[in-house]
Write a structure and sequence with these properties.
It comes from Vibrio paracholerae. This is Conjugal transfer protein TraA. The protein has one helix and no strands. The chain has one domain (1-46). The longest helix has 44 residues, at 2-45. It is mostly helical. The termini are far apart.
Length: 46
C-alpha cells in the first residue's frame, strides 16, 4: 500500500540522515580537536 511504502521511505530517509549527522558530528569533534594543528596548513592553501 502507498501508506506502507511512504513509511518505509521515511524510515530509510531518517536512518540515512542520522548516519550523515553522525558522520558530521564525528567530523566536528575531530576538527575541533585537531584544528590547531590543521589550521596553519589550511591557511597556506585557502
Amino acid at each position: 500500500s502507498k501508506v506502507e511504502s511512504d513509511a518505509k521511505m521515511k524510515k530509510r530517509l531518517s536512518s540515512l540522515l542520522s548516519k550523515e549527522l553522525n558522520i558530521e558530528l564525528n567530523l566536528g569533534d575531530f576538527c575541533g580537536e585537531t584544528l590547531n594543528e590543521i589550521e596553519p596548513i589550511f591557511s597556506k592553501y585557502f
